[in-house]
Design brief:
The protein is an alpha+beta fold. 38% of the residues lie in helices and 26% in strands. It has 2 domains: 180 residues, Ribosomal Protein S5, domain 2; 141 residues, GHMP kinase, C-terminal domain (Alpha-Beta Plaits, 2-Layer Sandwich), CATH 3.30.70.890. The longest helix is centred in the middle third of the chain and has 21 residues. The protein is globular and about 60 Å long. The two termini are 30 Å apart. The N terminus is likely disordered. The structure holds ligand DP6.
Amino acid sequence: MSNMQVTNSSTTLRSAAFAPSNIALTKYWGKRDARLNLPLAPSLSVALAELGSLTIVQPAADLVEDVMLVDDKPLDDAGMVKLRRVLDIIRQKSGSTLYAGLRSVNTVPAARGLASSASAFAALALAASHAYGLQLSPQELSVLARTGSGSASRSTAGGFALWHQGQAEDGSDSFAEQILPPEHWPLRLLIARVCDERKAVSSTRGMAQADTKSLLFAAWIDQCQRDVVDCRAALEAKNMRKLADIVEGNALAMHATMMAARPPLLYWRPATIAVMHTVRQLRSEGADCCFTIDAGSSVVVLVEPQDARPVADALAAIDGIEEVIQTRIGGGARLLPGGQD
Ligand code: DP6
């Protein structure tokens, strides 16, 4: 990030940005550097059109520390540590010493495997870099978002995004880019939310547990390297049957790695398994759909538009499914007007 440009180090603006959440088709689950969120393998994702985070950043001379409200509540301590990490990089690059007041609203249901951290850190990176007068390239923006949360690197890019593993120790080549626009394959996404009272183990913690302590870990990372290549080919060819093998196989392999960790991690509820079987049954009957699961109990289903309605209805009828949210694939992070009023 050495070549970031500073427009005017003494100028700060009130800035607002929206960033989408994203769902990995081949997963990021294992770090080569936990502080910089550098992955051990590349990963591929799709951005969720209107589900994400809207963040407003206002640097101010009268603040004695950064203040962040998320959905009107103060951000927790673990979140503040990550937030400060991103803001400190921006302050260092811009030459500003000002703290900032921040507010964020999430339109993505938190926890249960639908992480809001990807959209939150992507929106933060864009709004805050703009507020402090930095003009970042798409690559630099993705790198910055990644330092808050690994998967946020893919939310800045949007569409079908590929997060390059990178080799550099400082992480400057570990960024995501849009490899195909949303309109390339206008699939629908169905989020089947599973009723689950438990507080899910966070991805950050779960990953730390899996990568050092799962007997399947090395094989999992090897598989990811192959899956990214095959997944990209299936996306380019818009081949749902091929995509289903890779996407479902990759998600199940990640969960197998979690289950084989010590202590083992088990995110699924009975409804999670019921959704997986239903999707496979519907596919065998001709519906073009496949599922994936992040670090939680909820399931995301990718489906061709013409099959979206019957598949959504079938998922909603499953015992233990709270709701089925339908969305599309969308673009990346963007600045919003109204940041300065
Ligand atoms: C299962 O990006 O939330 O959703 O880098 O520690 O913030 P940190 O983890 P995070 O992990 C996401 C894990 C996943 C898979 C994925 O999105 O690729």
